[in-house]
Each structure stands twice: as C-alpha cells, then as structure tokens.
C-alpha cells in the first residue's frame, strides 16, 4: 500500500496500525466500558491523504471480527499562497493563526493571499476573476455564514464588478472578527477547564 521496503524505518511500518486502532471501539475501554458487548462502527472524517490508512483498515477489520469503519472525505484548506502550496508552522505567512493581531491578519491577506484577479483593473473589469483559485474567496466559503452574500460576492468577482482588493477587504473583516472572538474565549479557559476536557472518562451514552 505504502511502498515500504525492508530498509524503511520500523516506525513507518508500524504507524499504519497505530493510525487504524482508534477506529476500533474497544480501543477505548475508559469510554465504552471494559466489558463491551459489541463493537461499534466508526465514522472517520478525513482528507484524501489519510484515505490509504483506512482503506487498509476496512480490508483488515472483518478478518479481526471488527466492523468496517466508514469514511467521510473533507477538502483541504488552502494555504494563503494557493492550492499548490502548503500551510506550515515554519512559514508564518502561509496561514492565519488564531494568535494573530488584527494588523497581522490584514497584512497577511493583503500581501500573501493568492489572487484570482487579472493583471490590470481594466482586464479584470472586462473578464472578471477566477473564484476557483482565489484564496480570499475560498476562505470566505469556509468562514462566511451568509450564503446569499457569499453567492453575491462570487457573482460580482466573477463578473469583474468586485476587485481583488475589495474582496480581500471583505475577508479581512470576517477573519479579524473570528480571530478576535476566539482570543476572547481563550482568555476564559483555565487549567481546570483543560484538565476537565483532557481527563479520560466514560461518556454518559447508552450503548
């Protein structure tokens, strides 16, 4: 599946099994109880790069008397530089971080968000922008909750009525609001709250 050979590190060879284990409910006795009467099927949301691990799991699970997990594929969130680039913690300009200041959010979008607009204003007005590659529009697809406004933005940008700078301004306002709300809520999180969420405990579900 992964093209490993005998010269590959044993950690790489062992990792697929580690990746598969959480899709088996009996891996969590502290949640489901020590005496689990039956295994429960697992739904795994993942991006396409994780697909080989769980296709492998689906193949092996019945042989081990486990139910096959089901997959729900999600889309990749693009880096600011576009779909062909990758977000990285080592590149602070590749993404918007939840610790960024309003100025940092503005500067990152204005300077680094890949544009689907044309070379000149005149050409953009005549031919319109490409929403499929424009990062500002792609981000709004995730973060703008008003679907009607999002559709209007798509139409305006595609027709050339809305310029790239104007589209970026809309995104900046949305991201600044979102990041600010997160930072305010984060201030309210105490160590006791963290311990409460991180402590393994049985869930109050009926199985």
UniProtKB/TrEMBL annotation:
Q: Keywords in alphabetical order, please.
A: Aminoacyl-tRNA synthetase, ATP-binding, Ligase, Nucleotide-binding, Protein biosynthesis
One Pfam family matching this protein? tRNA-synt_1b
Which residues, by range, are in coiled-coil regions? none
Q: What is its EC number?
A: 6.1.1.2
The GO annotation for biological process reads:
tryptophanyl-tRNA aminoacylation
> Gene3D superfamilies, alphabetically?
HUPs, Tyrosyl-Transfer RNA Synthetase
Please state what class of enzyme this protein is.
Answer: ligase
Q: Which GO terms describe its cellular component?
A: cytoplasm
**Molecular function terms in GO for this entry?**
ATP binding; tryptophan-tRNA ligase activity
Q: Would I find Ligase among this entry's keywords? A: yes
* InterPro entries the record matches: aa-tRNA-synth_Ic, Rossmann-like_a/b/a_fold, Trp-tRNA-ligase
PANTHER family associated with the record: TRYPTOPHAN--TRNA LIGASE, CYTOPLASMIC (PTHR10055:SF1), TRYPTOPHANYL-TRNA SYNTHETASE (PTHR10055)
Q: Which family does it belong to?
A: Belongs to the class-I aminoacyl-tRNA synthetase family.
> What is the designated name of this protein?
Tryptophan--tRNA ligase, cytoplasmic
Q: What species is given as this protein's source? A: Adineta ricciae (Rotifer)
